[in-house]
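SEVERITY: medium
COMPONENT: batch folding queue
REPORTER: lab tech (J.R.)

DESCRIPTION
The queue accepted two submissions in a row. Attaching both inputs and their returned structure tokens so the on-call engineer can compare them side by side.

ATTACHMENT 1
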Amino acid sequence: MSIDQLKSSIPDFAKDVRLNLSTLASDETLTPQQKYGLMVACGIASRNPVVKAALEAEAAPHLEPAVLAAAKSAASIMAMNNVYYRFSHLVSNPEYRTMPAKLRMNVIGNPGVDKVDFELWSLAVSAINGCGMCMDSHEAVLKKANVPSDIIQASVRFAAIIQSVAVSLEAAEAA
């Protein structure tokens, strides 16, 4: 399924979602690698196979295989980290925040792509997964790298739009 087919499958009750999805490919705030990597990472994080497949098909011609793999790595590692760090942040017992995570996260230190791009993808996935501790951490790394706020905001906007596409399709299926 292409992104155009994905747009056409969004029901009329979610017209705004369809219009927002239309803006992603033409976004000029982000580099092509950032933009298409976000599509892949957020598509995976949406946990919707239709959205994931359409966005990966859209992105694949624009990304080198190593970049595509790095975007998938961002979604995968954040799936683990977001659960763990959301738990340690939200649980009342502060003891867990002092314990070592004991989770392998080597890809964060050596993602195989520009560190800023990987951090943008990780931030966006963390937003979808609702991990405030991870969002704070990735946003701080991006700010330390002098990434402008509009770039950071754009990555989270991509996450919001892509997640809303998945929810809209699921709502239409349930109807």
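ATTACHMENT 2
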Amino acid sequence: MAISISVVLLLLILAVIFMRNGGLKVSHALVCALLGFFMAGTSMAPTIHSGLTATADIVSSLHP
């Protein structure tokens, strides 16, 4: 568990750096995808999923 959290933090830092530089290349997108897969394996996954679901519900209930 400690190793996967360390990898998640490293990939998160790399993704933030890539996004701040403004150029998200294929290699950068690969790091972001790996970050997603590693995040899905952590204990934070259910919290992230419920937060995204709640946000999607709020956005879908808006009427222009």
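NOTES FROM REPORTER
The two ends are 45 Å apart (CA to CA).
No errors were logged for either attachment.
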